[in-house]
């Protein structure tokens, strides 16, 4: 079915920065995607998602000793020393992934579709802002409803797929290069990573893709804006992790019945630079939407969806 999916190419800008956050390369690339039309609104406007084709390949997952030790010096999160190790090789099959995190408009549209396992609360924030208070179970229900509606097996990314997609062939701490800036990513700016100047705190989410600068695969907002749920159960390190890009589960119960904590990636608008790196990983209770145990007025728990190429053939 992959060949029957109507893919189209799109152009996007990529940039690379040095340790001072200065742009040292700017160029234009192309990638392929297909557009999933969910429905049309009352004005006839199509509500859709763009799913970018990610070619399969092999990469080195995790952090080098040098990178993780440097990151720990920036933020006092000692647990990340082992969490991003051992540095290991993973081979990922081709898949499709959302060009952006799921937006408020897409959420409202799917929340109106027939229920599969749980209710989804509609949102009333700006159409192009990312969903920012979704629990892991909410994300699974979103995928289940969309799959039921379209006939395609949508899901969350595995953790390995997410890092592979984020890196997009790069080996630096960020796909932008040695660091990031708040001109390129929506994060906190009070803790810098390398030699870049402090930026500006926005204190809230920004419309997806609005800061420009995709990675080499054509994906936006892979660093900051909202933290993104992955499928995997949390593990304290990569000892025994799958090397085929599949999600790492401790048990095989249905997703909607899983308990405990799951992996989160990307960092959010309220995250410091070191926790937004390609290799940075966090964990959270699946039932939490980021609001119940958070003194902040806004959460930053979002997600983007994926679809395996082999499941479409």
Approximate shape: globular
The total of beta strands comes to 12
The major beta sheet can be summarized as: 6 strands, antiparallel
What percent of residues adopt helix (DSSP H or I)?
10-25%
Number of helices: 5
Percentage of residues in strands: 15-25%
Rg over C-alpha atoms, rounded to the nearest angstrom: 18 Å
Estimated structural class: alpha+beta
Mean pLDDT: 92
> Secondary-structure element sequence?
EEEEHHEEHHEHEEEEE
What distance separates the N and C termini? 4 Å
Strand order of the largest sheet: 1-2-3-6-12-7
Q: Low-confidence segments, ≥5 residues, pLDDT <50?
A: none
Short description:
The chain is α+β, with helices and mostly antiparallel strands. It has 5 helices and 12 strands. Strand 1 and strand 2 form a beta hairpin.
Structure explained in plain terms:
- The chain has helices at residues 65-74, 80-83, 104-111, 136-150, 159-167; strands at 7-17, 23-40, 46-54, 57-61, 88-92, 95-98, 155-156, 227-233, 261-265, 282-285, 301-302, 305-308.
- It has 313 residues and is an alpha+beta fold.
- The strands form 3 sheets. A 6-stranded antiparallel sheet has the order 1-2-3-6-12-7. The chain has a 4-stranded mixed sheet with strand order 10-9-8-11.
- A hairpin with a 5-residue loop joins strand 1 (7-17) and strand 2 (23-40).
- The longest helix is centred in the middle third of the chain and has 15 residues, at 136-150.
- The radius of gyration is 18 Å and the shape is globular.
- The relative contact order is 0.20.
């Amino acid at each position: 079915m992959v060949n029957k999916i109507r893919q189209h190419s799109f152009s996007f800008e990529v940039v690379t920065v040095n340790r001072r956050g200065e742009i040292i390369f700017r160029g234009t690339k192309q990638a392929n995607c297909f557009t999933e039309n969910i429905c049309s609104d009352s004005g006839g406007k199509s509500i859709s998602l763009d799913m970018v084709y990610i070619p399969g390949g092999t990469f080195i997952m995790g952090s080098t000793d040098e990178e993780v030790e440097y990151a720990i010096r920036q933020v006092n999160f000692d647990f990340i020393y082992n969490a991003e190790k051992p540095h290991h090789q993973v081979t990922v099959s081709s898949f499709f992934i959302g060009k952006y995190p799921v937006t408020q408009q897409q959420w409202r549209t799917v929340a109106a579709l027939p229920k599969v396992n749980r209710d989804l609360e509609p949102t009333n924030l700006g159409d192009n802002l990312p969903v920012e208070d979704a629990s892991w179970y909410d994300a699974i229900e979103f995928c289940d409803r969309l799959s039921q509606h379209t006939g395609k097996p949508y899901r969350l990314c595995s953790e390995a797929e997410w890092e592979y997609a984020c890196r997009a062939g790069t080996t630096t701490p960020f796909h932008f290069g040695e660091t990031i800036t708040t001109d390129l990513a929506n994060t906190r700016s009070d803790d810098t990573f390398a030699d870049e100047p402090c930026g500006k705190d926005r204190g809230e989410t920004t419309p997806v893709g609005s800061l420009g600068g995709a990675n080499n695969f054509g994906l936006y907002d892979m660093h900051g804006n909202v933290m993104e749920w992955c499928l995997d159960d949390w593990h304290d390190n990569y000892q025994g992790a799958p090397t085929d890009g599949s999600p790492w589960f401790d048990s095989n119960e249905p997703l909607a019945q899983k308990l405990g904590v799951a992996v989160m990636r990307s960092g959010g608008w309220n995250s410091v630079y070191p926790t937004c790196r390609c290799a940075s990983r966090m964990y959270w209770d699946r039932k939490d939407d980021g609001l119940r145990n958070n003194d902040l007025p806004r959460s930053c728990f979002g997600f983007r969806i994926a679809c395996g190429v082999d499941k479409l053939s």
